[in-house]
Automatic annotation (TrEMBL), chains A, B:
Gene3D superfamilies: 3.30.465.10, 3.30.70.2190, 3.30.70.2740, Uridine Diphospho-n-acetylenolpyruvylglucosamine Reductase, domain 2, Vanillyl-alcohol Oxidase, Chain A, domain 4. It holds the Pfam family FAD_binding_4. GO terms for molecular function: catalytic activity; FAD binding. It comes from the Bacteria. Keywords: FAD, Flavoprotein. This is FAD-binding oxidoreductase.
Amino acid sequence: MTEIETILRQSLPEASFRPPEPRYLEEPRGRYAGQAVAVLAPASTEEVTTIVKACAQTATPIVPYGGGTGLVGGQIAGEGTRPVVLSLERMRQIRKLDPVGATMTVEAGAILADVHSAATAEGLIFPLTLASQGSARIGGLLSTNAGGVNVIRYGNARDLCLGLEVVFPDGTVMHGLSSLRKNNTGYDLRHLLIGAEGTLGVITAATLRLFPEPAATGAALMVVPDPDAALALLRRVQARAGGGLSAFELIGGMGLTFLDEVGPELRQPFAARPDWMCLIDLGLAQGQDPSDLLEAVFAEAHEAGLVSDGVIARSEGQRQEFWSLRESIPEANRRIGSISSHDISVPVAAIPAFIAEAPGRLAKIGDYRINCFGHLGDGNLHYNVFPRQGQSRADHEEARGGIKTCVHDLVHEMGGSVSAEHGIGRLKVDDLERYGDPAKLAAMRAIKQALDPKGIMNPGAVLRAP
Amino acid sequence: MTEIETILRQSLPEASFRPPEPRYLEEPRGRYAGQAVAVLAPASTEEVTTIVKACAQTATPIVPYGGGTGLVGGQIAGEGTRPVVLSLERMRQIRKLDPVGATMTVEAGAILADVHSAATAEGLIFPLTLASQGSARIGGLLSTNAGGVNVIRYGNARDLCLGLEVVFPDGTVMHGLSSLRKNNTGYDLRHLLIGAEGTLGVITAATLRLFPEPAATGAALMVVPDPDAALALLRRVQARAGGGLSAFELIGGMGLTFLDEVGPELRQPFAARPDWMCLIDLGLAQGQDPSDLLEAVFAEAHEAGLVSDGVIARSEGQRQEFWSLRESIPEANRRIGSISSHDISVPVAAIPAFIAEAPGRLAKIGDYRINCFGHLGDGNLHYNVFPRQGQSRADHEEARGGIKTCVHDLVHEMGGSVSAEHGIGRLKVDDLERYGDPAKLAAMRAIKQALDPKGIMNPGAVLRAP
């Protein structure tokens, strides 16, 4: 037994040890294989500090582990000294729910869907919504500053968090579970830890913002001729719905073709597969009618030539059908198998220019299919490149690097980001070095060195291990 | 001439030197008197780097200076080595305004009111709104994470900023003027610099979020029996207005008494001065009528015994009158002269309990008048303690410390903040040490040391100078 194993066995209860099952050492796309000296699931913040102190003492790396749904390898360390995998899965208590203040304090291992349920039981909502909500955990969602479909209305994960409890790399605990809306007392370490992907400390609990459940919800799918029209449609919806617009998703025709090709099988709303359509989701206050509003928007947009067809949900069931369609596209993508996937953002106004320019550049590399969809109002696209029908991603393995660079170079030229919502993890460390601002990177390294001088917290994620 | 003066004279144009006028060396309440080896007003980011590098070379402190409106002495260094005062007043260009993307990139010296005007000219708004907007500058507003009356709807200054250009203490420049809504590429240094009060670098420019101008605005004053009723009224307005509630201010009766006593003279809406009233401000989308909504809220709240009287603005002029009343209270406070002022926050639901408890505790110290008003929906009160009529603050000078500790201890017991929106500056360094989380403070010091090893950036602000 190594020194760290001995210390851990002496200082932790048996229940905190987990068998090193594959689920702790793989990531969804199978691109990383990890290793571990131990997989630990502490039951309390105190146990987390015990683990972190033991690791600090023995210079053992720690990989914080939430739901394992990250797409950039932040949760998997395959190189260097074998790490302790620190899973928050047993810390999933709701410590406090304040319906009047509309806040909830939860431990980092709470699953997003459970947080949703707890809020709903009080007539409130926690609006962070994304495909992996049945397994993603709050600690991971905050550590990666997760996005999802409701960012346009409620912001990213960071905007939904009022306070954090964090175990720093020296084992000290920051007791920052504030539920205050305003608090200007020193550096905002909450925002520094959120999005740091476990490289500066372990988030053990968080105080989250809740919101009133909208009095009425509604949704529509509208067919637009091109992304420019989609953007103009977005402006019109915003003018009528104000802050009541919950989501505005752009869906490219290739996603619908993929669904026809490989499923999941579901009813498509338009007989002819449109090149572009928008999924509009509303959550309105008392006295406003979503269907009336969507009909008025459609009439006005149709008159202006911005939409050619559309369907407004007549029931909550139909609204859910629209969302199933949208959420099935990533599954269809997985079944086809992308050569290279890109989670990019550009300034919102530049979305049409990006969509116009990228295919021509990619055509110079090879003959591909592009499935482009995403969160139009946030300027965030999932821009994924696939083989032609009958070919597989394996046929294009050697092209992946070139495709990625082609897309990311264009994004960078347009002032965009090569990771809009997934983070850097281990997958995009090169990209951050290539595109990141040098002064920002130097400051990040200085902060990492200051807070984690031994380099034990998730080494190799975000910043290259020294 | 000292070494730093020699270097500066050699490397900067004459126009960048300002006479060391009192306005650079005093703060609004006259509690701090500063000194300076030079007052500099650079014309460009390049000149800022020249200054910072010269100061780094000679270990000369730098005090970044915006509009000089800060209330906690962050802009005034009276002790230690004479600093360079670095005023951003000449850097006030709007570098870019993107109406489609709804963003504006401005230099740090831009005055808030000018930013408002530039946005309005494009049919957009920049919603940060506070009493000092005619002189406060963007760099200072971001460095202190300013709040104001519209936080309930649009958030603090940090929530309104997408990107920053910053000169770090070593003179390197972070080119981070991103206008992206989503960007998860590394540590969020933007949020670290915002609210750091110039202790980690100099903000030279920022990209700000703009918002659509609401289609219709409206306001009302409603008389409530107590803060509990005010909170219940807030919930009812939120249920009807959704995201359309722009501000919800609680106004205590003492403010109205002070206006009667010392002015400014203005028409008060209720013949009998109510103990408590709420100023409700709405900005609604197309198709919604603010007056109808406010009338419905009033009828419902009256039925429920939450309001006893009210007046709804019948014109934009009347809405402005309501706001003049609210904004005149700080001026009346100044004329009376507070013994001790407190910018505090507690969890929103705890506001009534705080207001109920504090007077009894203060009565044990002495016989005072309390003017309590503020941003109820944010849990943020300006809780100011005054002498009885006929006495002056000078009569109670020796009681100030005890009063402050009394109020701040109660705030701390209730999980609140002793600086909700004004920051720490030099005034509250002791408070931060007394009430701050030790692990957070240690991490702050480590970050300060890492980014500013020579300790030249605004030394003594936020953190005690070593």
